[in-house]
Amino acid sequence: ISEFLLLALADTRQLQLLHFWLLLGIYLAALLGNGLISTAVACDHRLHTPMYFFLLNLALLDLGCISTTLPKAMANALWHTRAISYAGCAAQVFFFSFLFSAEYCILTIMSYDRYVAICKPLH
User: Fold this and answer.
1) In whole angstroms, what separates CA 16 from the centre of its chain?
2) Closest of 81, 34, 41, 88 to residue 61, by C-alpha
3) What is the pLDDT of residues 95-112, one digit of tens each?
4) Concatenated DSSP letters for 67-91?
5) Cα angle for residues 103, 76, 100 (degrees, 5° grid)
6) 104 backbone dihedrals φ, ψ, rounded to 5°
7) What is the pLDDT of residues 28-63, one digit of tens each?
8) What would the DSSP string read from start to end of 28-82?
Protein backbone atom coordinates (compact mmCIF):
# COMPACT_ATOMS: atom_id res chain seq x y z
CA ILE A 1 0.00 0.00 0.00
CA SER A 2 1.59 3.26 -1.08
CA GLU A 3 -1.23 5.70 -0.36
CA PHE A 4 -4.69 6.03 1.12
CA LEU A 5 -7.74 7.80 -0.27
CA LEU A 6 -9.46 10.02 2.25
CA LEU A 7 -13.20 10.50 2.31
CA ALA A 8 -14.24 13.85 0.93
CA LEU A 9 -16.05 16.23 3.26
CA ALA A 10 -18.19 17.50 0.38
CA ASP A 11 -18.77 16.74 -3.27
CA THR A 12 -19.39 20.22 -4.63
CA ARG A 13 -16.65 22.79 -5.06
CA GLN A 14 -18.56 25.47 -3.11
CA LEU A 15 -18.83 23.23 -0.04
CA GLN A 16 -15.17 22.30 -0.29
CA LEU A 17 -14.23 25.99 -0.28
CA LEU A 18 -16.58 26.58 2.65
CA HIS A 19 -14.85 23.76 4.55
CA PHE A 20 -11.47 25.25 3.70
CA TRP A 21 -12.43 28.69 5.05
CA LEU A 22 -13.99 27.19 8.19
CA LEU A 23 -10.89 25.08 8.87
CA LEU A 24 -8.66 28.08 8.18
CA GLY A 25 -10.67 30.14 10.69
CA ILE A 26 -10.41 27.43 13.32
CA TYR A 27 -6.68 27.02 12.68
CA LEU A 28 -5.97 30.74 12.86
CA ALA A 29 -8.05 31.09 16.05
CA ALA A 30 -6.09 28.24 17.64
CA LEU A 31 -2.78 29.75 16.54
CA LEU A 32 -3.76 33.18 17.85
CA GLY A 33 -5.12 31.95 21.17
CA ASN A 34 -2.28 29.58 21.95
CA GLY A 35 0.27 32.09 20.69
CA LEU A 36 -1.14 34.77 23.01
CA ILE A 37 -1.04 32.39 25.97
CA SER A 38 2.54 31.39 25.18
CA THR A 39 3.63 35.00 24.74
CA ALA A 40 1.95 36.17 27.93
CA VAL A 41 3.43 33.40 30.04
CA ALA A 42 6.90 33.78 28.52
CA CYS A 43 7.07 37.58 28.75
CA ASP A 44 5.52 38.29 32.17
CA HIS A 45 7.82 37.24 35.01
CA ARG A 46 4.88 37.12 37.46
CA LEU A 47 3.46 34.22 35.43
CA HIS A 48 6.54 32.05 35.96
CA THR A 49 4.76 29.75 38.42
CA PRO A 50 4.13 26.01 38.11
CA MET A 51 0.49 26.39 37.03
CA TYR A 52 1.39 28.78 34.21
CA PHE A 53 4.28 26.54 33.23
CA PHE A 54 1.74 23.73 32.74
CA LEU A 55 -0.55 26.11 30.86
CA LEU A 56 2.30 27.08 28.54
CA ASN A 57 3.06 23.41 27.85
CA LEU A 58 -0.64 22.74 27.24
CA ALA A 59 -0.81 25.61 24.74
CA LEU A 60 2.29 24.36 22.90
CA LEU A 61 0.96 20.80 22.80
CA ASP A 62 -2.36 22.08 21.47
CA LEU A 63 -0.51 23.95 18.72
CA GLY A 64 1.30 20.77 17.76
CA CYS A 65 -1.87 18.70 17.91
CA ILE A 66 -3.89 21.01 15.68
CA SER A 67 -0.94 21.53 13.31
CA THR A 68 -0.71 17.78 12.75
CA THR A 69 -4.00 17.24 10.94
CA LEU A 70 -5.58 20.54 9.96
CA PRO A 71 -3.11 21.71 7.27
CA LYS A 72 -3.56 18.46 5.31
CA ALA A 73 -7.35 18.72 5.61
CA MET A 74 -7.23 22.33 4.38
CA ALA A 75 -4.98 21.37 1.47
CA ASN A 76 -7.32 18.53 0.51
CA ALA A 77 -10.33 20.86 0.57
CA LEU A 78 -8.58 23.61 -1.39
CA TRP A 79 -6.85 21.56 -4.09
CA HIS A 80 -9.56 18.89 -4.46
CA THR A 81 -7.17 16.04 -3.62
CA ARG A 82 -7.95 12.99 -1.53
CA ALA A 83 -4.70 11.01 -1.42
CA ILE A 84 -2.31 10.75 1.49
CA SER A 85 0.86 8.68 1.41
CA TYR A 86 1.34 5.77 3.77
CA ALA A 87 4.29 7.48 5.45
CA GLY A 88 2.31 10.73 5.78
CA CYS A 89 -0.62 8.90 7.35
CA ALA A 90 1.65 7.02 9.74
CA ALA A 91 3.38 10.26 10.73
CA GLN A 92 0.04 12.01 11.33
CA VAL A 93 -1.23 9.14 13.48
CA PHE A 94 2.00 8.97 15.46
CA PHE A 95 2.28 12.70 16.14
CA PHE A 96 -1.42 13.14 16.85
CA SER A 97 -1.44 10.20 19.27
CA PHE A 98 1.75 11.33 21.00
CA LEU A 99 0.67 14.96 21.36
CA PHE A 100 -2.86 14.08 22.44
CA SER A 101 -1.62 11.67 25.11
CA ALA A 102 0.88 14.29 26.29
CA GLU A 103 -2.02 16.77 26.59
CA TYR A 104 -3.88 14.30 28.79
CA CYS A 105 -0.81 13.84 30.97
CA ILE A 106 -0.43 17.61 31.38
CA LEU A 107 -4.14 17.94 32.24
CA THR A 108 -3.79 15.17 34.82
CA ILE A 109 -0.77 16.86 36.39
CA MET A 110 -2.59 20.21 36.41
CA SER A 111 -5.63 18.70 38.13
CA TYR A 112 -3.43 17.02 40.74
CA ASP A 113 -1.61 20.32 41.32
CA ARG A 114 -4.97 22.06 41.92
CA TYR A 115 -6.08 19.20 44.20
CA VAL A 116 -2.96 19.58 46.34
CA ALA A 117 -3.30 23.36 46.42
CA ILE A 118 -6.94 23.18 47.57
CA CYS A 119 -7.03 20.12 49.83
CA LYS A 120 -3.55 20.18 51.34
CA PRO A 121 -2.40 23.80 51.41
CA LEU A 122 1.01 24.61 52.90
CA HIS A 123 2.06 21.00 53.45
Assistant:
1) 22
2) 34
3) 999 999 999 999 999 999
4) HHHHHHHHHHHHHT--EEEHHHHHH
5) 5
6) -65, -40
7) 999 999 999 999 999 999 999 888 999 999 999 999
8) HHHHHHHHHHHHHHHH-GGG-SHHHHHHHHHHHHHHHHHHHHHHHHHHHHHHT--
